[in-house]
Design goal:
With 416 residues, the protein is mostly helical. It contains 17 helices and three strands. The chain has a three-stranded antiparallel β-sheet with strand order 2-1-3.
Amino acid sequence: MATFEYTVRDAAGQTRQGTSEAENVEILRRRLQEQGFTVADIKQTKAGRKKSAGGGWGRVKLKDLSIFCRQFSTMIDAGVSLVRALDVLGEQTQNPKLKRMIVDIQTEVESGQTLSKAMSKYPKTFTSLFIGLIRAGEVGGVLEEALQRLSHFLEKDMELKRKVKAALTYPAIVVVVAVGIVVGLCTFIVPKFVDLFKDLGVKELPAMTQVLVDFSDFLKNRWWMGIIIILVTYVAVKYFGTTRVGRRVIDRIKLKVPVFGPLHHKIALARFSRTLGTLLVSGVPILQALETVAGTVGNSIISEAVMEARARIREGDKINDPLEKSRMFPPMVVHMISIGEESGALDQMLTKIAEFYEGEVDATLQSLTSAIEPVLIVFLGVCVGFIVIAMFMPLIQVIQNLTSGGGDDTKGAGKE
């Protein structure tokens, strides 16, 4: 969670300034608007950016955090003091960055700071979900249960990401091989054929062959332009994604793009359900839980729908109505949440929704992998086939010319 400075105008038109912590700018903006303010400016403080650094080079993997939570929970449940548990964890962890964080957190706790407050110094590692669950565990006196739920949540999140990566590994390898083959053929083989065509006296190449020759010339002589175009495009898209409008456009495209859009939507719904269910079962108030979920769901369109639901709940509405109106949540999800809210078992219902969509993601990935394999093979075959045909078309013309020329000479000799 980062720290932001904001400037707002109240209902009387007076300007106010202040600082606040939030997951991101959009969540803080919505929070201030809910309080009746008109937001003029929000920017992250230098202190907030410094905190976000996370304590050194490298990163802390979900696996390291999951093991940290599991071991931490076991020691707390066994009656080991908080400071002693942190000391042991700091000694045995293999990740140097996490080790530095644990040592600093231990120092903060020894000086009288709460564990959740000490962890909040490292928002890139200990997210708002992490901090919210730890705080709820501290308040309720069930820190070991909160840590166990965190470990279980991280393991589920890891498993979901692992499945997505595994499903996309083969297509990525095929694409890289296809690009490598095409570039190799265009860079080394095509120029030799071009020299052969010149020796044979071919003056005008077929359109298909000319396109291939121009592309080969571009790769050989102006390859740096291609790299510049790719880098400029990447930086432009990245910068566009940092703006409010750009982030909305990109996230909407992620939801609408064929094949991968439904997959992204299912992953976001699974994460929404799992995160909200974990927070609610740990005793986190629903308004705070929804704000945390909005920052971790991974899509600004769905995040806005969650924040709209939060605003409506503040006014006394039920959670299912705004979710249904957003059209980002399927009817099944809305109805199950409504039943869970009426029966007082919302956390259990959300867990069932998460398990259902995690299964849907798994099935979608398997079918997607099966469908992509032949498509990529056909694509590679078309690319190579195009190159082969384009290279042999001038040779076929030369052979036809020679054949027709030879036939004419034979006819002329017969007349004489």
